[in-house]
Specification:
repressor; eight-stranded mixed sheet; Tscrpt_reg_HTH_DeoR_CS; three-stranded antiparallel sheet; transcription regulation; 16 strands; globular; alpha/beta; DNA-binding
């Protein structure tokens, strides 16, 4: 395997699954631990990861949409199907940026809904569905992540109202705080929360605790969390204390 391909696979593994040991990466890629160590040194020199004892973790930052879209698709589809079941025909829905929101959009075909989004991939998915009233928010285009951001997006949201917001995240802290790695997206997410009656967080198991340096909101601003695995005890306690319903993909936990 060429070094460049190994580097891509190492970064993808770290970004999707969090910090990893040299031995784990060696097994995943089918190369020696010594080769992985050399790769990690090179990637750290390039500023793409940080080596830690026995392994490495990815540097936080933007990941291209196409790269993230390939990760944990089955889990995201299970979350999306459960989230779609919360929506009644005739309601208005805000869909956040991100790949899980895109998987949710795929579940909405044939429904009579209004969908509002800053997610260009959601727009492309639903553009030809005549049963859906589709509202694309304005703003500056983030080409790599296929989203719209900035004061125009926020201004648009102040003029709109939605029954539901389906919110993405980079990570959920044990205290229930919803985090994001990209500061420029945070004001848009906050404006979406204000524009919606109910906020549903879509978070697969890798998002507990996940990553993120910027706080989007606290647990008190959430109504439901839809996830594909049991939430750790500390986070679950924080969510329950805030009155948040935790829904496992496939069933509801009271």
């Amino acid at each position: 395997m060429l070094a460049e391909r190994r580097h891509q696979l190492i970064l993808r593994a770290l970004r999707s699954g969090g910090p990893a040991a040299v031995t784990d990466l060696s097994e995943q890629l089918g190369v020696s631990p010594a080769t992985i160590r050399r790769d990690l040194v090179k990637l750290e020199e390039d500023g793409l990861l940080t080596r830690v004892h026995g392994g490495a973790r990815a540097e936080e930052g933007d990941q291209p949409f196409a790269e993230v879209a390939e990760v944990r698709v089955t889990e995201k589809d299970a979350i999306a199907a459960r989230a779609a079941a919360l929506i009644a025909d005739g309601q208005s829905v805000l869909l956040d940026i991100g790949t899980t929101a895109y998987r949710l959009a795929r579940q909405l075909h044939g429904r009579r809904l209004t969908v509002i989004t800053s997610n260009l991939v959601v727009y492309e998915e639903l553009a030809d569905d005549e049963g859906i009233e589709l509202v694309l928010l304005g703003g500056m285009v983030r080409r790599e992540y296929r989203s719209l951001v900035g004061f125009l997006t926020e201004d648009n949201l102040r003029q709109l109202h939605a029954d539901w917001l389906f919110l993405g995240t980079s990570g959920v802290r044990p205290g229930g705080q919803v985090m994001d790695t990209t500061v420029v997206e945070v004001p848009v997410k906050r404006a979406m929360i204000k524009a919606s009656d109910k906020t549903v967080l879509l978070a697969d198991t890798a998002k507990f605790p996940g990553t993120g340096m910027a706080k989007v909101c606290g647990p008190e601003e959430l109504d439901v969390v839809v996830t594909n695995a049991p939430v750790d005890a500390a986070t679950r306690s924080s969510l329950e204390e805030a009155g948040v319903e935790v829904v496992l993909a496939g069933k509801v936990q009271a």
